[in-house]
Amino acid sequence: MEEQRGELKRVLKLKDLAIYGIAFMTPIAPAYIYGNASAVTGGTLAMAYVVAMIAMLFTATSYGSMAGAFPVAGSTYSYTQRGINPHLGFFAGWAIYIDYVLVPLIVFITGASYANAAVPQIPFFAWVLIIAGVVTVVNCVGVQMAARTNLLLVAVMGAIVVMFIIVCARAVLGGAGEGTLISSRPFYNPGVTNISVLVAGGALACFSFLGFDSITTMAEEAVRPKKDIGRAAVIACIGGGVIFILQAYVAQLAWPDYTSFESADTSLFEVAQMAGGTLMSGLYTFAVILSTFTAGIAGQSSAARLMYGMGRDEVLPKKFFTYLHPKFKTPIFNILIMCAIGVIGSLTLDMALVTELMNFGGLFGFMCVNLSVIVYFFFRKKERNVLKYLILPGCGFLICGYLWISLSTISFIVGFSWLFVGLIVMAITTKGFKVKPKIYEE
Q1: Which of 47, 73, 108, 151 is the most buried (most CB within 10 A)?
Q2: Beta bridge partners of residue 222, listed in sequence order
Q3: Separation CA 292–CA 311 (nearest Å)
Q4: Cα separation of 142 and 369, whole Å?
Q5: For the chain, domain boundaries
Q6: Dist. CA 97–CA 103, nearest whole Å
Q7: 3-class SS at 176?
């Protein structure tokens, strides 16, 4: 069938979508939080990842339900707009936009920092430009190239993670750490583990899963969106969760004293150094740098397609935000905007604030999607599958809400300031809320 002008290409299969979600989360994600999270959980980060994976599966199921009903670009924005209310949909999209914008920004900062440490002759800002440039070119050329690039990079990262797990296991069997591979210690620490510790650890671990929802922004480029989007979201959650749990498990066995790291920020590199020497720690550093490309590609692409969906519904200037490259059929202007935001933010913003804001937007969006399932299916469509359309999304909403209200004060100040800006934008585009935002129908 001939590709129509103004439409995104349907080329992504289930495998591509699942890898896209895992790439956004990155298989190496425990490297970013291991030291601090181990201290919070008393050395039971593996259990925290189990809790987080279960929690995120509720929301992944909700994304699957909404993707089946509305297989269009826009993800959280589109689902809330159609499932509940067009105005609330705008706010959901405006909030989740922070998440999609800041994920590549965070990995640009991290990747450039590690690359600069490895090759200090090239300054930090130059590494930011290099990483951003590669990510932007890949996304401009199209999702097929992005999917192939992600497949390759995720495979390399996955191989390094497997090597890390094997090296740690060999070290343990050789007498290091616990001295045994069968232990409940990474899941339960007597005298430390309790409900509050599990909740706190689960909250930290949940942030490694932020990004699986990016799969749904590719609905109009999926070959079978109604069938594959939901399945891919669940597969990405489970696949990512298993990878995270295994890394946390073997690292805890290999290095039981989680209080003895020289730096909490580089704890897993110290574990890799101890278990596998300079080669393993070097490979792990290389994997972190690779993760900046996979998460950067997925994050930039998702934000660009969210803007495409909002532009098509005319809540953002339509002509500009829905422009597709005549050859590659990608929203090139949106991608270039994301590149500029990523570069400027990487050079000016504080990492801690960026992380908090990402959590603010992501969890707010998750709550909206869970609520959308209940409102649309259970109340509006009168579907009486209580488990699927009430209990599961209800649990997802409550869990995400609990994590959301536990964020810092500064994240709420900046986050609500961002929502206020969105309120002004929506007031202008809807002529003082007198006109509902338009809804695109396929």
Answers
A1: 108
A2: 12
A3: 28
A4: 27
A5: 14-363+406-429
A6: 10
A7: coil
Residue type, 212: F
Report how far residue 124's alpha carbon sits from residue 46's, in angstroms, rounded to the nearest whole number.
Answer: 33
Q: Which two tokens stand for residue 383?
A: 């579907």
Per-residue confidence (pLDDT) for residue 74, from 0 to 100: 54
pLDDT score recorded for residue 442: 41
At 185, the amino acid letter reads R
The whole-angstrom separation of Cα 184 and Cα 188 is: 6
For the ranges 131-145, 328-342, 372-386, which has the lowest average pLDDT? 131-145
Q: Cα dihedral angle (362, 316, 146, 70), rounded to 10 degrees?
A: 70
Q: pLDDT digits over 199-220, tens only?
A: 778 877 887 887 777 787 777 7
Place of tokens 């969906």: 309
The Cα 289–Cα 108 span in angstroms is 9
Amino acid letter at 319? K
Beta bridge partners of 12: 222
Q: Report the first-to-last Cα separation within the chain, whole angstroms.
A: 17
For the record, the structure tokens of 348 come out as 């000016």
Max Cα-Cα span within the chain: 71
**Burial (CB count <10 Å: 0-12, 13-18, 19+), residue 5:** exposed
Between the alpha carbon of residue 44 and those of residues 34, 48, 204, 241, 346, the distances in Å are 10, 7, 12, 15, 32
Q: Cβ distance 90 to 314 under 8 Å? A: no
Total Cβ atoms within 10 A of residue 425: 15
- Alpha-carbon span 170 to 184, nearest angstrom: 18
Pull the structure tokens for residue 153.
């990079």
Looking at 113-173, which runs of residues are DSSP E strands? Answer: none
Amino acid at site 414: V
Torsion region of 154: left, alpha or beta (phi above 0 gives left; psi -120 to 50 gives alpha): alpha
pLDDT digits 0-9 by tens, 415-433:
899 889 888 888 887 777 7
Residue 389 is classified by DSSP as I
pLDDT of 78 above 50: yes
Q: How far apart are alpha carbons 13 and 405 in whole angstroms?
A: 37
Give the model confidence (pLDDT) of 238-280 as tens digits: 999 999 999 999 999 999 998 888 877 778 888 999 999 989 9
